[in-house]
Amino acid sequence: MHPLRIALGLFACTALPALAVEVEKTASTTPISTTAGADLASAYIFRGFTVNKRPALQPALKVQVGGFTAGAWGSLASDVQPGEVEKEMDLYTSYDLPLDMVTLSAGYTQYMYPDTELDDDQEIMAKVSLSTLLSPSLAAYRGVGGGIEDSTYYELAGKQEIFAKDGFASTLGATMGYLDRAEGTDGISHLTVSAGASYKVITASLNYVAETDSKVNDLSEQEQFFVMSGASFTF
């Protein structure tokens, strides 16, 4: 059995009972936080794969109540090439359980593709994050419906703040993805490195996707460099 599958199983055995206890403790007076915003991406790249090569507007809205989060995210491409999807709408919910320096998370996402005949993709998520140097995290996303059913995507990520002063901040980050497909070649799908900056509500980032195994994810005909900029407001 793959070591990451073992880790996911151990996470489920330990995290889910703790999540159930924490849910019972959540009080009705928990403050509610709402965040709304939008990004403009030079290309829509998701988990190392190019969804749209043209610029895309990507609005988002999420509501947080204690450790609970529910939200919606969308993407509208300025133009599409054959095989690309012009519109996407995602609905998601998750719960975060902080335990000292460790945060356990579980969630569900439904990916919808308006104006197409594609079935909705559905997945569940389990994640472990550490509040240490580089803020490392390991997540597993299991497809339970649509074209990603019975496939699992694992992601190891890290991010480090380099500078912060007077509302300005800069960060460096990296993610590595591993695909365990229902069909096709399994393996490391990509490595993405990012440099980001923010000033109060405005954000921007430069991102590069590096090919790791052409049998898993051939990037020769895909976008590897993309830029994102946007703004978000919390109230």
Characterization of the model:
The protein has 235 residues and is mainly β. It is 10% helix and 59% strand. It is built from one helix and 14 strands; from the N terminus they run H-E-E-E-E-E-E-E-E-E-E-E-E-E-E. The strands form two sheets. A twelve-stranded antiparallel beta barrel has the order 1-4-5-6-7-8-9-10-11-12-13-14. A two-stranded antiparallel ribbon has the order 2-3. A hairpin with a 2-residue loop joins strand 10 and strand 11. The longest helix is centred in the first third of the chain and has 23 residues. The termini are far apart. The mean pLDDT is 91.
SSE diagram, text form:
Layout: H1 3-25, E1 32-41, E2 44-46, E3 49-52, E4 56-65, E5 68-77, E6 87-99, E7 102-112, E8 121-130, E9 137-145, E10 152-165, E11 168-180, E12 187-199, E13 202-210, E14 225-234
Antiparallel strand pairs: 1-4, 1-14, 2-3, 4-5, 5-6, 6-7, 7-8, 8-9, 9-10, 10-11, 11-12, 12-13, 13-14
Summarize the structure.
The protein is mainly beta.
**Uncertain regions spanning at least 5 consecutive residues:** none
Q: State the separation between the terminal residues, measured CA to CA.
A: 46 Å
Question: How do the strands of the widest beta sheet line up side by side?
Answer: 1-4-5-6-7-8-9-10-11-12-13-14
From the alpha-carbon coordinates, what is the Rg to the nearest angstrom? 18 Å
Helix share bin: under 10%
Q: SSE string, helix = H, strand = E?
A: HEEEEEEEEEEEEEE
Sheet with most strands: 12 strands, antiparallel, barrel
Query: What general form does the structure show?
Result: globular
Q: What's the number of extended β-strand segments?
A: 14
| Average residue-wise pLDDT | 91
Strand content: over 45%
Q: So how many helices?
A: 1
Helix/strand-derived category reads mainly beta
